[in-house]
Amino acid sequence: MSAHNKALLSDYLRKRHSVTKLVVHLIFTTKYRRKLFDGYMIEQLREAFDSACEKLECDLLEMDGEADHVHLLIAYPPKLAISVMVNNLKSVSSRRIRILNAHIPRQSKSAALWSRSYFACSAGGATIETLREYVQSQSTPE
Questions:
Q1: Are 72 and 50 within 8 A, CB to CB?
Q2: For residues 102 and 120, which has the higher predicted lDDT (pLDDT)?
Q3: Are 77 and 96 in contact (CB under 8 A)?
Q4: Angle, alpha carbons 23-24-29 (nearest 5°)
Q5: Exposure of 81 by Cβ count < 10 A (0-12 exposed, 13-18 middle, 19+ buried)?
Q6: Do residues 42 and 127 make contact, with C-beta atoms less than 8 angstroms apart?
Q7: Pairing relation of β-strands 19-20 and 22-30?
Q8: How does DSSP assign 78-105, residue by residue?
Q9: Under 8 Å CB-to-CB from 27, ≥6 apart: which residues?
Q10: How far is CA 97 from the centre of its chain?
Q11: Average pLDDT of span 72-82
Q12: Among 3, 30, 131, 142, which residue's Cβ finds the most Cβ atoms within 10 Å?
């Protein structure tokens, strides 16, 4: 493999029979969209998400948030379902925030920090249009 190709594949997850780069953009909102988070709590969430990602063999590429929601950009292996990742991230972060911030009032009977819903979107380096053009440019054998 040439040095150029190795440089191109450096950000990819290389396994025995596959080369992948799966990145998902996730958004989690607080229960009832309550404005709970401050800058200090966002940092606590970052640490919780980082810890959970390490156990799931994921990479937390970016994370930030506002008072009522957080955005995550995560690279993950193909064996991991996004729904499993979301459930793990939410439970670990909720538990950590509850332990470190006992002053947070219970938002519901279940004491859930996060809303049950979430946003997930695939995130790649190329646009759909770029990929469509690339596929169409392949020369079909005669």
A1: no
A2: 120
A3: no
A4: 155
A5: exposed
A6: no
A7: unpaired
A8: TTS-HHHHHHHHHHHHHHHHHHH-TTSP
A9: 69, 70, 71, 72, 118, 119
A10: 18
A11: 94
A12: 30
